[in-house]
Specification:
The protein has 525 residues and is an alpha+beta fold. It is 38% helix and 16% strand. Strands 2, 3, 4, 6, 7, 9 and 12 form a 7-stranded antiparallel beta sheet that branches. Strands 8-5-10-11 form a 4-stranded antiparallel beta sheet, with no helix packed on it.
Length: 525
């Protein structure tokens, strides 16, 4: 606690001039209030303004490296300060951009950025663009620098927009939905979050990043899709090989409770038109292990409309039944539509008498997907499903071109003449639509501004630009690790890691030590 308090004090002192200026501003702002209103209200307003200023000045704008915050920031011995600087050189990915001698690289454990394959299924394009433009604003404490800092805001936004469109060609942006989200319990998730150790590094939910070595979680719903966050928590190393976050051994149910807690809650069935009558159905009461040929079924045991995907009610029992659903899919504009068919057990999707998705067999809830080019108009849609025993589930979502993923129930009617529920809700705003004309510029910028140095992509044609100066030759007070970055052709105007003075000094000592160590004990590169 003493070390933590010292760190906080030093950080506050480093911003004393900003605080003094802010207090003066606060007095000026309430001067008119004092004249117009009584002193009591004026004092309350002053206290509120001062509290806001203190919180704002203490908020961490610098990159948060927990090991450095816990042990390196309070170091007073030179050797410990050097170790702290070496830690930062690795965690900030310095050797991803700068070559280092073999003798230097022995002392640095390099951190690489997340893999960007299938990025669109994990994050939302609106967040990605904002994050690329200003990482520290979107994710306080991030170790990712702000790029193109010497360019205008408009130019930086344009380049980052191009990169966003390029990344959209690597993985289609879609609202990947977590299975069985309507069954999650955010209250249970909060307990699990604190019990398994998430709160140690991130803080209790609602108090994220309260300590100086904790990484705030900010608004995860803005960044993640629920399916993407669920997959990440299941195996962080799949997309982040250098992840410092461990893989927690949780059941699927408990992990999804945590996702619900992190999201604040998850959209349940009401947001998916769960009560909409979209299909006419037929049910056969028999036990099967695969979907049989329709010509062998004979007359159904029950018929009727289906509310949502409540096929068990249509069948009249929970196990050992087979269902066919028929309806009409309403398409407002021509485009490529991605369908996600999930079921426990087997299912099949047919549109315009063409098999689109095959998800047959006895299995737990499993989702399969496929896309199809559809013309504007009305298309017959047919779903086959069977339940053999155990849990029972059926869902069909669609990713509309330029829109988020949603349940197909809002776009289907049991008769051709009816209007689907989605049309009654009015037009939606297109949040992101891939512009192929911006992709070449985005591919080039991804390499030249430095993204490819830290992040791996599946694009075989992607090559990172040449590396910057050797690590041992850097002057930390002038290079990209400084508070005000120098411009360079490679970065098109420089980068800014938002380092504070303590971090700069630690890196400076580490670079000096590496030069001395290289001179004393050189190893061939």
């Amino acid at each position: 606690m003493l070390n933590d308090s010292n760190g906080k004090c030093r950080y506050a002192i480093s911003h004393v001039y900003e605080l003094i200026f802010g207090v003066a501003t606060a007095f000026a702002m309430i001067r008119r209030h004092i004249i117009i209103n009584d002193m009591k209200n004026a004092c309350l307003k002053l206290m509120s303004a001062l509290a806001s200023l203190l919180v704002a000045n203490y908020a961490c704008a610098h990159p948060i490296v927990p090991g450095y915050e816990r042990f390196g920031r309070t170091a007073t011995v030179v050797s410990d300060q050097v170790e702290a600087g070496l830690l930062l050189l690795g965690e900030l990915g310095c050797v991803n951009c700068h070559t280092a001698s073999r003798s230097s690289i022995r002392h640095i454990h390099t951190k690489h950025g997340p893999r960007l394959d299938n990025l669109g299924a994990r994050v939302r394009p609106e967040w990605l663009l904002d994050h690329l433009v200003d990482p520290q604003k979107e994710k306080p404490g991030t170790t990712m620098p702000r790029l193109l800092v010497r360019d205008s805001d408009s130019k930086r936004s344009a380049v980052m927009g191009d990169i966003t469109h390029y990344l959209g060609t690597i993985g289609v942006f879609e609202d990947s939905r977590m299975p069985a989200s309507e069954k999650t319990d955010s209250k249970k998730g909060r307990l699990i979050h604190n019990q398994v150790g998430c709160a140690v590094c991130h803080g209790n939910l609602g108090e994220e990043g309260k300590l100086s070595d904790q990484l705030p979680l900010v608004d995860l719903r803005k960044k993640w899709t629920s399916g993407g966050l669920d997959d990440f928590l299941k195996n962080p190393f799949a997309t982040r090989p250098s992840s410092r976050m461990p893989q927690f051994v949780l059941s699927d149910t408990d992990r999804r409770h945590v996702v619900a807690a992190l999201f604040g809650s998850l959209p349940g069935a009401p947001d998916q038109h769960f009560d909409t009558i979209a299909f006419k159905g037929q049910a056969w009461l028999r036990k099967v292990a695969t979907l049989p040929d329709a010509s062998t079924l004979g007359e159904p045991d029950t018929k009727g409309t289906v509310r949502g995907f409540d096929v068990a009610t249509l069948a009249g029992q929970k196990n050992n039944f087979l269902v066919h659903l028929d309806g009409f899919l309403h398409i407002e504009r021509k485009g490529k539509y991605l369908f996600h068919l999930g079921s426990d057990d087997g299912s099949r999707l047919i549109i315009d008498e063409k098999k689109i998705v095959e998800n047959d067999g006895v299995h737990p809830h499993t989702e399969k997907r496929a896309d199809i080019e559809l013309d504007q108009g009305i298309h017959p849609i047919h779903i086959e499903y069977f339940e053999a025993g155990g849990h029972q589930s059926l869902s069909l979502d669609v990713t509309i071109p330029g829109l988020a993923r949603k349940s197909v129930l809002g776009m289907v009617t049991p008769s051709e003449e009816e209007l689907p529920a989605l049309l009654h809700e009015g037009k939606e705003k297109y949040v992101f639509e891939l512009d192929e004309a911006r992709v070449p510029g985005g591919r080039k910028a991804f390499a030249t501004v430095g993204c490819a140095a830290c992040h791996a992509v599946s694009d075989a044609s992607m090559q990172s630009a040449s590396r910057g100066p050797g690590l041992e030759t850097l002057n930390s007070l002038r290079a990209c690790l400084s508070v005000l970055a120098d411009s360079s052709p490679r970065t098109h105007g420089g980068v800014d890691y938002a380092l504070d003075r303590d971090q700069q000094n630690a890196i400076h000592k580490a670079l000096l030590w590496l030069r001395e160590a290289e001179a004393v004990d050189p190893i061939k590169r």
